Automatic annotation (TrEMBL):
One Pfam family cited in the UniProt record for this chain: 2OG-FeII_Oxy_3
Source superkingdom: Bacteria
Record protein name field: 2OG-Fe(II) oxygenase
Residues spanning the signal sequence: none
Species of the source: Streptomyces thermolineatus
The keyword Chloroplast is assigned to this record: no
Domain Fe2OG dioxygenase residues, every copy: 90-218
Length: 223
């Protein structure tokens, strides 16, 4: 009788073979009515450059080799949150998440010349408190786009076919999402992603790559 076990089925496959599983991203262009998007951009531009602080990583540390950008956590964008809630149900369905018993939190992030954010995840798994269930990023910038780069790179899941072997980072594929004005992306916080380096020749605050980065946080104990 033929051995149909998983081990036997994989025995003919090279020891370096891997599975590459693309990560789902929901991208919605022209998300807000044009006049609302322009008003939100102007609100971002009007935030004085010296009211931003250096963006942090991990436990609130500033690590320029990992992340270089500026953040303002008191930025108000109620019209954006209202629009997100209108599309939340289909986004949950596509990504396979539930935002029940969650609340949104967000801030304004600014990338200018030479800024970036190295590959990272938005959650540390079950140990992370409060738990992030869903990530969203809404992009704003002047037109024509006054900077180059700054795309969102989302990495595939890479898994060895043969158990007991570690996955290698270099085996991961990726897809880049352009930071188009008035577009928004949604993805799971567990996805590995990065902000590619930005080139902004003018270095002026108003020519930056603006983004409202946020999450839906679980407000009650969950699984």
């Amino acid at each position: 009788m033929a051995d149909t076990s998983e081990t036997a089925q994989c025995s003919a496959v090279g020891t370096e073979a891997i599975w590459r599983l693309p990560v789902t991203v929901c991208c919605l262009p022209r998300f807000l009515p044009e006049e609302r998007a322009d008003a939100l951009l102007q609100r971002a531009v009007d935030c004085a450059a010296d009211t931003f602080s250096a963006s942090t990583v991990f436990e609130g540390d500033v690590v320029p080799s990992v992340r270089r950008s500026r953040t303002r956590n008191d930025f108000e964008a109620p019209e954006l949150v209202a629009a997100i809630r209108e599309v939340l149900e289909p986004v949950e369905h596509v990504l396979g998440v539930s935002c029940r018993d969650t609340e949104p939190g967000y801030g304004l992030n600014v990338h200018n010349d030479g800024d970036f954010y190295r590959p990272h995840q938005d959650t540390d798994g079950v140990e992370f408190q409060p738990g992030r269930v869903l990530t969203f990023v809404y992009y704003l910038h002047r037109r024509p786009r006054p900077f180059r780069g700054g795309s969102l790179r989302v990495f595939d899941i890479s898994l060895p076919v043969h158990r007991g072997e570690a996955a290698r980072w270099e085996d991961r594929g990726w897809r880049d999402w352009e930071p188009e004005h008035n577009s928004i992306v949604f993805f799971r916080p567990t996805a590995w992603h990065e902000v590619r380096p930005v080139s902004c020749p003018s270095r002026r605050h108003e020519d930056s790559r603006f983004a409202v980065n946020g999450w839906f946080y679980r407000t009650t104990a969950g699984p």
